[in-house]
Amino acid sequence: MIDFPVVWLVSVLTVIAAVTLAQSDRIISRARVFLCLYLLCLGGIGFILGLRLSFDSKTAASIQPFIAVMSGPSAYLGFRALSVETDSHWYRVLFWTAVSVFIAVVLILLPIPISADFYILTINSLYLTMIAGLLRLGSDDFFHVSSWGYKQLRQAIYATLFLLGIMIAVDGLIAAASLFATKPFMLELLSGVSGIFAAFIFIVALIGLPLVFKTPENAKEKLEPTTAEDRVILEAIEVLLSEQKLYKDSSLTLVRVAKRLSEPARRVSIATNRATGENFSRYVNGYRIRHAKRALAETDLSITEVMFESGFISKSSFNTEFRRITGQTPTQYRASQAGG
Questions:
Q1: φ, ψ for residue 10 (rounded to 5)?
Q2: What is the DSSP string of 277-305?
Q3: Which has the closest alpha carbon to 256: 246, 271, 245, 244?
């Protein structure tokens, strides 16, 4: 069949894309893990489709549902990780996602006279909705994405929604055909269509995902020019952070700072983005890391104590931000200062 080499070729390319993304340090590790898993799920589905269409493999047909039910959840976790600042919150998200996948897998395994495509359709539709919900978050809600990357992130989410929508539509057609079709060739035809759609999905993912978090050399130049009003707002923020040391407050938010300044939160966010090239969360974290560097170099506080003293409550967030800004872990930084 025509789609046989396409599906297998794109499966290989998708694995290459996953490997490329895994080696990128532009985003936090847990986001990379699940976005890579999403790509590998897509690649696995394509490989299995090739086996089914070319060899009529019953084993491949039995494995495919278990991979398919993980595609939507893994995409959701990949994007969701970028907006979760605390470990406890992340573990809750991870737990409930794992529970939903486990339930879907158990239902597929049970001897119930319902097509596995129904469960695939249900769970991917659920996570399609949840991924769409991430679009309601603003730039400052994605703590691990720079302001210039927020637009690209939204584009990646839209692309994922579109691609998952295609997969859901195809799974729906196959499920309907399994109920109403009387001729076997109709299922084979729909499987072929599924392969073509999958190939399209893989190609878009291959091109788009590795580029989403690539930093353009002229990122700051692409921002809108800073206005005089932006500079006034930023100076007021700097007073709050430098003199009053509000960055030490782990519950500090954009909204709270905006209220202090008697400015709309959106206006403060825009001013910070344009004046610094970073979103508000990253800008505040810059103050926190500078404080942490001084504490690590000049005091005997433990790293955990330094973390809390600097305004962080999540060890993973502290380590991620410290490495992003300094290129070292807190332990490595302290050792380098002691050695100097």
A1: -70, -30
A2: SS-HHHHHHHHHHHHHHHHHHH----HHH
A3: 246
Tell me which CATH code domain 3-212 carries. Answer: 1.20.1070
Map tokens 């599924």 to a residue.
194
> Which of 1.10.10.10, 1.10.10.60, 2.60.40.1910, 2.60.120.580 would CATH assign to domain 226-339?
1.10.10.60
- Whether residue 248 contacts residue 291, with contact meaning beta carbons closer than 8 Å, is answered with yes
Averaged over successive runs of 10 residues, the pLDDT of the chain (340 residues) comes to: 54 77 77 89 78 71 86 94 81 94 92 82 93 89 77 84 79 65 51 52 52 47 72 91 89 88 89 87 92 92 92 86 88 82
Token readout for 280 is 């508000």
Distance CA 340, CA 336 (A): 6
In the chain, where the domains are located? 3-212, 226-339
In this structure, what is the dihedral angle of CA atoms 141, 144, 150, 154, given to the nearest 10 degrees? -80
